[in-house]
Design a protein that fits this description.
Length: 507
């Protein structure tokens, strides 16, 4: 009985987040702050950590949330807001809309490829809101446009915001980020191929019509999935989605021009206008590439500029911030230079940055609170207790359900990154207890979280805002549920069977 009570108490912070965010629809900043306070009390009153260690653990997590996650979020949104202010996001959107008149092909271009690109450089719901709004201009009904955008923003989210979810997962679990990126890409390969077909079916539910254009979703899925895997293998977690989305865009445009020449409208923007519009994003791609391990001399030199510190006592608990190669620094620098190219003055950029900070201060607090909560759970042993109980209860079939845990995390928090922070260590502990490949099981949390994100209240709220359907969240959730269930079911079964076949897990 005591062990059951202890398990319930250790689960309480997670239960609170699920109920407060998913049921009570409480604002995330309030729910996560209360969740952190609850976790701190459980740690102290339960005798797990001293008061000092508990608060040091929370501070350690808050600072990690600030310099690893929030910095990237602010920089990415600043880049997007600056491009929107100058009118250049509209140039990119217009250029895409002139490739084809077939709504099924446009969905692949706008939601799958362009949406993935937005996710790669910004994330934060932009990849749902913007494509959903564009689809309405193509005469796709608002609710359908929302569900399509939510489904498209699943398999493409793992490397969003210049690889932030995977980088954070690697930081939390102390695993190699490049190896982890490879495992994540492998696990999502089937979903990358499947989702474009589902998107086409969502536009037109006729399998007969799908047969007529099957090569479009196949091209979109294969190009994206394979390029993402290759870039993960060669460069690590920062560039896979950027390169894969651009490669998919190019492949689809070339295919559309070849197969549907008569439907392609005359381009309204010159190459110079498009080059200027994409300048910040080209710079992000270029700087991430040049500072990556692909150029070891540059990478090693820049990594010498770092800040190392330790807040929570104990071996391997220190933090290192390589500020020159941080995705946040790269995005911020690219946005500033790109903004100047787009004739946005430094004074205007400063105003945009201030407005961006004002718009996301609640998100920054939320991120810091959720990471602090996860760190206290980890340092106090709550995470280990949960992992041990789950492994004991499920035994060797635990890996079958591991993605569901990731999905619960992203559903509750609306963020793959937050899900990884919450459950990354739990999956690692479970892998150690089961004696299975730790990279495979930890990566499955990332794979599962891509499904839960589709149903999270935050994602659905963003989708309804993008199509001006505030108050219709319940209808969209109902329509999205069956697709998310199918997606998650495929992940669980596929990863379990492949894991058994290749010896990553065992019976």
């Amino acid at each position: 009985m005591n062990s059951l009570i202890q398990l319930f108490l250790d689960l309480l912070p997670i239960i609170w987040l699920i109920i407060s965010l998913g049921v009570f629809k409480m604002p995330a900043v309030r729910a996560t702050s209360i969740g952190l306070a609850l976790t701190v009390l459980l740690s102290i009153l339960g005798g797990k950590l001293t008061v000092t260690k508990t608060f040091l653990g929370a501070l350690d997590g808050a600072i990690m949330g600030l310099i690893v996650i929030s910095y990237v979020v602010v920089a990415a949104l600043f880049a997007y807001n600056s491009a929107s202010y100058s009118g250049n996001m509209r140039v990119i959107q217009n250029a895409l809309s002139h490739v084809s008149t077939d709504p099924r092909i446009l969905v692949l271009l706008v939601c799958w490829a362009f949406g993935a690109f937005l996710e790669s450089v910004a994330g934060f719901g932009i990849a749902v809101a913007i494509p959903a709004g564009i689809l309405i201009s193509f005469n796709i009904k608002p609710i359908k446009a929302s569900v399509i955008s939510l489904l498209a923003n699943t398999a493409t989210t793992s490397f969003g915001a210049v690889g932030l979810p995977v980088i954070t997962l690697a930081d939390v679990t102390k695993l190699n980020s490049q190896t982890l990126a490879i495992f994540v890409s492998l696990q999502l390969l089937l979903l990358c191929i499947l989702v474009p077909f589902l998107l086409v079916l969502l536009v037109d539910s006729s399998f007969k019509e799908l047969k007529k254009i099957w090569y479009y979703p196949l091209t979109a899925g294969l190009v994206y999935g394979i390029v993402q895997l290759v870039v993960s293998y060669l460069l690590g977690p920062e560039l896979p989605t950027i390169v894969a989305s651009l490669a998919t865009l190019i492949a689809l445009i070339m295919l559309a021009q070849r197969k549907n020449k008569s439907s392609v409208k005359q381009e309204k923007h010159t190459l110079t206008e498009i080059a200027v519009a994409t300048a910040p994003f080209i710079l992000i791609f270029s700087l991430v590439l040049v500072t990556s391990p692909l150029f070891p001399q540059i990478n090693n030199f820049l990594n010498n500029f770092q800040i190392s510190f330790q807040i929570y006592p104990g071996q391997d608990n220190g933090q290192t911030f390589s500020y020159l190669v941080s995705p946040g620094t790269i995005i911020l620098l690219s946005a500033i230079i790109g903004g100047l190219v787009q004739k946005v003055s430094l004074q205007e950029q400063l105003k945009i940055l201030i407005l961006t900070l004002k718009s996301v201060w609640k998100t920054i607090i939320t991120v810091c609170a959720i990471v602090a909560l996860a760190k206290v759970m980890d340092y106090s042993g709550m995470t280990t207790t949960l992992a041990t109980s789950l492994v004991k209860g499920l035994g060797p079939i635990y890996p079958l359900f591991a993605p569901i845990i990731g999905a619960i995390g992203s559903f509750a928090t609306g963020s793959n990154t937050s899900s990884n922070v919450l459950f990354g260590d739990l999956q690692l502990s479970a892998a150690k207890n089961l004696g299975v490949n730790k990279y495979w099981l930890v990566a499955s949390n990332m794979a599962g979280s891509t499904a839960g994100n589709m149903l999270s209240p935050q994602s659905i709220a963003v989708a309804t805002t993008g199509v001006k359907l505030e108050g219709k969240e319940g209808i969209i959730l109902k329509d999205a549920l069956k697709w998310a269930g199918l997606y998650l079911g495929v992940i669980c079964i596929f990863l379990y069977l492949i894991g058994l076949i290749f010896g990553m897990i065992r019976l």
